[in-house]
């Protein structure tokens, strides 16, 4: 939830391009690189340092640092200047995962053990599936699993991008609220 709150925190209602073109103080502060997204993260974490707002206080220093890094990475991913680069990276990771999944090398990158089971399940005939349906893995088990922190963050970045862009499908009344 915090990622969604932070991603537009303190938004001035202008675009990054406008801020850069007009040498707005936010653009100057962040060297013309994602001034809004950098501002959202910095302002939100600054606010959280105020008395009574530091909900991260119970976390260890390491947990706080990890959480802050994750939030910043996700918020920066909402900059539309990064859109095609991020999509390309995501597509490449999943194409490689799909290639490895279907190769002779085994279970496949990003698919975990359940992915290997799913490959074998796909090869069954419809009669076989009907007979073994009680032992078929759930959809959650079949979902690709990130292999490392980089893949996990990339997946989370794609989720927040989808949520950020999803509002475009809503009516004007939603935007007014």
Automatic annotation (TrEMBL):
Keyword Hydrolase on entry: yes
Gene3D superfamilies in alphabetical order: 3'5'-cyclic nucleotide phosphodiesterase, catalytic domain (1.10.1300.10)
Pfam families: PDEase_I (PF00233)
UniProt entry keywords in alphabetical sequence: Hydrolase, Metal-binding
GO molecular function terms attached to this record: 3',5'-cyclic-nucleotide phosphodiesterase activity; metal ion binding
Keyword hit for Metal-binding: yes
GO annotation, biological process: signal transduction
Superkingdom, taxonomy of origin: Eukaryota
Domain PDEase, residue spans: 1-177
PANTHER family noted in UniProt: CYCLIC NUCLEOTIDE PHOSPHODIESTERASE
Protein's recorded name: PDEase domain-containing protein
Protein's organism: Volvox reticuliferus
């Amino acid at each position: 939830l915090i990622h969604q709150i932070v991603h537009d925190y303190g938004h001035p209602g202008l675009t990054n391009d406008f801020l850069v073109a007009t040498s707005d103080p936010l653009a100057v502060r962040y060297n013309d690189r994602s001034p809004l997204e950098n501002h959202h993260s910095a302002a939100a974490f600054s606010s959280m340092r105020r008395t009574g707002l530091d909900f991260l206080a119970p976390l260890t220093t390491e947990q706080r640092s990890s959480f802050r890094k994750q939030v910043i990475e996700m918020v920066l991913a909402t900059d539309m200047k990064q859109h095609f680069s991020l999509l390309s990276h995501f597509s490449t990771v999943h194409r490689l995962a799909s290639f490895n999944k279907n190769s002779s090398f085994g279970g496949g990158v990003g698919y975990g053990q359940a992915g290997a089971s799913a490959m074998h399940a796909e090869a069954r005939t419809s009669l076989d599936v009907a007979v073994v349906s009680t032992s078929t893995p759930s959809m959650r088990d079949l979902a690709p699993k990130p292999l490392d922190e980089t893949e996990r963050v990339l997946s989370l970045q794609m989720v927040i991008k989808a949520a950020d862009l999803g509002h475009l499908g809503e009516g004007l009344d939603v935007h007014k609220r």
